Amino acid sequence: MQGVPVTLRLLLGRWRCRNSNCERKIFTEQIPVVAAPHRQRTERMESIVQLVGHSLGGRPAERLMNGLGMAVSDDTILRRLKSTTRVPSKQLRVVGIDDWAWKKGQNYGTILVDLESRTVADLLPERSAKQVKHWLAQHSNVEIVSRDRFGLYAQAAQQGAPQARQVADRFHLLLNLGDAVEHELSRQRRLLFYVTPSTAAAETNAPIPPPSSSRPNVERAAQYRDVVVERKAVNKALFNTVHRLRQSGMNASQIVRETGLSRKRVDKWLRLAELPERNKMEPKVDSPAFFRDYLARRWKAGCQHVKTLMAELRVLGYTGCFSGLARFLSSWRNREQDMPAKPDRPAARNDIASIGHHVSSRVAAALLVKPRPFLSPSQAQKVDALKQSCPSFALMRSLVMQFRGILRSGKVETLEAWIGKAMNSGIYSMKRFAKTLRRDWDAVRNALKEPFSNGPVEGHINRLKTLKRQMYGRAGFHLLRARLLPEPLRTHHALHQT
């Protein structure tokens, strides 16, 4: 009381049972309003411990409680917090599902949020269809499941809650479209340049490179090879430009301002006479490349059956998977098959400095998906320049802006027409994105009709990350779940009792 610990000594009535057959001989008067049986703290004190522990965690809560004259150890606070964790008993109608990372790229869990009350419904330790399916089966009142485009959650929702309508998150739809745009622009790196005002007049009469149309029905591996070829050509042209500017008398700072490259890259390239190849790791026994010579001999001998070669490599010590070997051999198989002729590509420019700054595919994609009212004057100028230098940039920007408008308007018929335009655009990445929309058509259609999204889920994931960092990443699943779930209402009621 007033920062001073107070000990309460209570006199309670005790009764002895005269029935010899009764298992309990002594009965003591109970006072649940003051304290529970066998407790050393009052109910109000327990509620304060739980409330502070839920907000701050272990040691920060211990320091605060000690400063307020309520000496409680961090172990007691955490034990109390975990023992009173309860999943909200409210019947859920709309649930948002997404994953969160224990360790990014390795271990993931699942978070479920009540989108109507915008509170965490539960936290699962794994990202698995089995756990999500089991959780949804226990909540048979769920009517709507909002999720991203991850197929695992779509499968779990279909099996665990077949009565629920699945809704694809609109933000993830735009994110997937942005990834498709970036992938396509990475294949056209040599066309992504920004003409500076100082050189615009000199390049007025320069021929515009022809568009690089995308090939329909091309293997994904061929698309990846195109990206690699474009990256090498652009880096080679930039390397030559840096050395030409150095020979003309410019120093490193002037070259950075002229080309838009980073100072670290310019300094590195100036120390080199030739552009080196990218470093490759020495293959290990879990990689088919480790057995390249043996596979090449067997391939030339006529043995091209993957399962047969897999069995032979197992004897030699191969520890990789079957799909890895199949992907490795697919490149050899594709070279032997007749591939459709590639369209004419524009000749690589050896002097990028003469046409201005080169724009990376990531920056170009970010500018492409950004509406014009949100562009700064310099960004708008870059967008106009990219439309001129890369004709497919203008077409993709038109499709992206139309897609954004469709998500706001909610017209399913317009989306069907947009998918037809994307399929007929001749751009591989846009066609591939349109196909994925058709595969998940029910969820995409519901995204236009339903007002719910995974925005609150993403917010709670950020909160979860904050809690993990606050506890230095040492919190186990039960403690993390206890702090993420909403505080029980009875705690707040107990604090106001007199």
Q: In terms of topology, how is this protein built?
A:
Elements: E1 14-16, E2 26-28, H1 43-56, H2 59-67, H3 74-83, E3 94-103, E4 107-114, E5 119-124, H4 129-138, E6 144-147, H5 151-160, E7 165-168, H6 170-186, E8 193-194, H7 197-200, H8 220-247, H9 252-259, H10 263-270, H11 292-300, H12 306-316, H13 322-336, E9 357-358, H14 361-368, H15 377-389, H16 391-409, H17 412-423, H18 428-439, H19 441-449, H20 455-470, H21 477-484, H22 489-495
Parallel strand pairs: 3-6, 6-7
Antiparallel strand pairs: 1-2, 3-4, 4-5, 8-9
Helix pairs in contact: 1-2, 1-3, 1-22, 4-5, 6-14, 6-16, 6-18, 9-10, 15-16, 16-17, 17-18
Could you explain the architecture of this structure?
- With 498 residues, this protein is of the alpha/beta class.
- Among the domains are: 14-84, no CATH class; 94-169 and 453-484, 2-Layer Sandwich (Nucleotidyltransferase, domain 5); 288-336.
- Helix content is 52%, strand content 8%.
- The chain contains 22 helices and 9 strands.
- The protein has helices at residues 43-56, 59-67, 74-83, 129-138, 151-160, 170-186, 197-200, 220-247, 252-259, 263-270, 292-300, 306-316, 322-336, 361-368, 377-389, 391-409, 412-423, 428-439, 441-449, 455-470, 477-484, 489-495; strands at residues 14-16, 26-28, 94-103, 107-114, 119-124, 144-147, 165-168, 193-194, 357-358.
- The protein has a 5-stranded mixed sheet with strand order 5-4-3-6-7, with helices on both faces. Strands 1-2 form a two-stranded antiparallel ribbon. Strands 8-9 form a two-stranded antiparallel sheet.
- Helix 5 links the parallel strand 6 and strand 7 (165-168).
- Helix 9 (252-259) crosses helix 10 (263-270).
- The chain is elongated, with a radius of gyration of 32 Å.
- The two termini are 14 Å apart.
